[in-house]
């Protein structure tokens, strides 16, 4: 006979989203009993793993897809401002957790790394300059620098200029020294280590197989231990599905109406990586450029400084790959088993209207190592094939809904707020804190008002806009920079 344990909250998936929500709920309701269920042998093994994501600390300082240009030439910056606001909340939360001893020294998960954008060609240079002029007027972007001078750009990032000739084509760059590199794997491990210390149960090697409503409105979560310990089940008042690409599959199994109509399109990635000391010593920045026509936002080329487990490397990519799996360690049947009558026509419409994406994926799959390094040479002209090795990155499940392929993150929650899950990719981990804040407002409407004083202890500007309050913004950003030891 299977024993049914009763808890307040079940978190499905051991990534940064579950770790963040679990930490919030433990701080706000220390009397609640929380259980996390992870199908792999440890937490942070999929999208939260440091080698599976960009680690950019997405704050729209360098990512051009957050400032789209309309056909008439105007540049829209509202999304960039919103994402930067969101990342400031993450910084405040992490600062508070460092002060409380929940997180280790800041250098174990976050490091100062300037964020740059580099473009080539007259049209792209004009766009970047217009983007800079608009953002420079915003409080959160006031320190951004712009240059078309090869000598200045060489000081910022020598690898961009070595063997590049200005006479070949115009180029320009922006730089924000306050950018960061974030090891979300280390951050996730530290958050779960604290929660385990606080006696929160974390079941690894455990796969959720079924979700069903009980007569009293709670959720019965049935699981199976993947190492042969047999089935089990737990009953919870609230369930969060933070299972990356498998979130949709589990939400579909729950039967909630809100999950109907959604589908996912899997896109994998690869990096070129080097730890060659001579190269690493010349590059201390995250440099983003323009995406290839037809490429999804996650495939915007970038030359990144990465610090993982205290060791610095440089990555370039990602290069898109294709697999029917929704997770790196998922199932080859994922793309098929998601199909329902409610979503098949929407997915077929996406396939029919995204031919450029299909062409892009085919071209990426055909690239040899030399051709991938050729792409790198567009940013780093001096790159040599032998210095770079190929590394398999993470697997993403892009959201399809209402006939459109979407590239953001979406929270799906039941009407009564008893279950919620997260779909999508970018900006993902960097905005885990604001995403979970919004989720708690939706799913815990009766508690959120009483939680606000504690939330303001953890996030002093909770509920306020920084971009509209220059003095508060400067004070807040300087405070978190000091707390997180982010002086460049």
TrEMBL record:
It catalyses: (S)-malate + a quinone = a quinol + oxaloacetate. Its EC number is 1.1.5.4. InterPro entries: FAD/NAD-bd_sf, MQO. The keyword Oxidoreductase applies. Keywords: FAD, Flavoprotein, Oxidoreductase, Tricarboxylic acid cycle. Pfam families: Mqo. Pathway: Carbohydrate metabolism; tricarboxylic acid cycle; oxaloacetate from (S)-malate (quinone route): step 1/1. Its cofactor is FAD. Belongs to the MQO family. This is Probable malate:quinone oxidoreductase. The gene is mqo.
